[in-house]
Amino acid sequence: MARSNDGALKCSTIFPSPQKHAWNLARTLMTPIVLFKSGDEYGVLPAEEIEDAEVEVLFEYDPYSGGHSVH
Question: Can you spell out the DSSP letters for the chain?
Fold first, then answer.
């Protein structure tokens, strides 16, 4: 595993990328998933649950048509 200069493990070596996680979740659940940013954190939710949330939606992953940037 890779370590930063202060000895901490880098997240990229522990967790899959947020994009890969979102796409895998969309394909597993067979429902559109959005990748969003809230402050300094990233997350994924089913697209139908994100409507009223105060987050910045970055990508939408549809298991039937692929992923695309929302911007």
Answer: --B-TTSPBPHHHHS--HHHHHHHHHHHHTS-EEEEEETTEEEEEEGGG-TT--SEEEEEEETTTEEEE--
